[in-house]
């Protein structure tokens, strides 16, 4: 413990003990010397009180939070105490015979000190409603014992103002001591060492104030009384408590109790009141008013405590439930809650219409974490969650699915409506970059969306159990086609959506990394456009798959292509070996030799001026002609469709096959390809 090795506290404690011995010696010597007794009991008595005030100010400056508030109240309490003792000393020196009347202005200061000490102790120990009830139960029991054993025997047969004020001191001391003990036994925080010293000090005060009340009834209080030595011990303990709080403010931190003692207040109160009742019946044959009053207070307190405890348990259960189903970072519901709601929606008795699921995955989110750090990544996730939440309807459920993935559960929402909602979310997220503290420029974010719908009116449609898997596969295709798009899943998915290609994941990853470095998603986008263009030209599925696969990989060829001319061909054109070698190498890496002719001919031109072989017109494989048009659109588009359209039209008959250009532009009129990923992603 830090208190054990504190030399300052040790020296101060020894000094307090020496002062107490010195004061006791002067009190003894003053028994036959009125002047010395008056000086000891009224002037020297003020030294520890003034020291306590100074140490309280020191503690109020050193502590923080709840403890600082408590010590500020104790500063005011000790000011009242010093004022009361000073006024009393003045009365002793100015009143004939040194016998001040009671009550005086000093008594007002003393009582104010008690009134300020009580809330200070409660604040210092972090009292809550349940703790207050527990403290009152134990305090009632303690006050009953104190009254019966200490105060009641001293009560005079007739009351006057002086006697009433005199007996207020032991009453206040008993109440404060009882509350301190109750809070130390029942509080939900570790008791600070300073408060332990407070409890010991007020335990002494209970005895001293009781004896003072008794002696005041029998005879007048004088400065020669040994009670002053006991009060000096109380004050010195309070001084030590203030010094402990000032030098070890960290010991005031909240800590949960080691053991559950919530049953203790009721047990102590019941046992004490039962003991008092038994004593009353044995000694007087009837219950005293004090016992009846305490019993009534006990009953009311126990009832209120049970109500508060029940409400506390209910609130705690709700908090635990909320924490279990809520994502701590974004404040959204988590995956567990989504699965619970999805299972509830799967109940046939609850289904009243179609049910849709939208999976959302942020594009290139790993780049945000790698570039700016995870704190910025967390800020982006929080901002995205808030944007998505604001865009949803009241009955829709948005959850964080995991990592950078979110999921929307859309009750009574069909496929087209879910698709439209996903598109609005996509456009809204893409339209406005996200400002993040600590980052100079707002971060442009996009997301890919997978949509799935289960409609009970469609027997051949999806079931609720298939929704998430179908939406997940749609999301994967959205990523594969260039990101920043909405893809629908299920039996009614549009036929033109590009399928998953039979390519090694390592090569697909490499194409995506090259796209990320360039700042676009063109490889997947060109593959998707080539698939749809081949379908519009009426090519069979195997040919479409081959063209889409070649389009997906053709961007890697630039890493190995050389432009040195090879030997002349039969038609007189200089063959360039680089593209052909690159195409063969890439096809070998993909284990797809059928892709080599398409990859090698991508740079041929319709008028025969291309390379590596100078092929023209229909001699160029149809897949290479399609890839060339899609690649040209990606080069020229940059998000501005009219410019890209004109580029293709200018190249008709020279660079591009006019028939392929016509089909591609017809598709562009129906489904603008610039939305498919040519713009830069974060």
Automatic annotation (TrEMBL):
Query: Where in this chain does the record put each GGDEF domain?
Result: 353-491
Give the InterPro entries listed for this entry.
Answer: Diguanylate_Cyclase (IPR050469), GGDEF_dom (IPR000160), HD/PDEase_dom (IPR003607), Nucleotide_cyclase (IPR029787), Rev_trsase/Diguanyl_cyclase (IPR043128)
User: Which keywords fit this entry according to its UniProt record?
Assistant: Membrane, Transmembrane, Transmembrane helix
Q: Which organism is it from?
A: Catellatospora methionotrophica
Q: Which GO terms describe its molecular function?
A: diguanylate cyclase activity
Q: Which GO terms describe its cellular component?
A: plasma membrane
According to its UniProt entry, the protein's GO biological process terms are: cell adhesion involved in single-species biofilm formation; negative regulation of bacterial-type flagellum-dependent cell motility
Q: What is this protein called?
A: GGDEF domain-containing protein
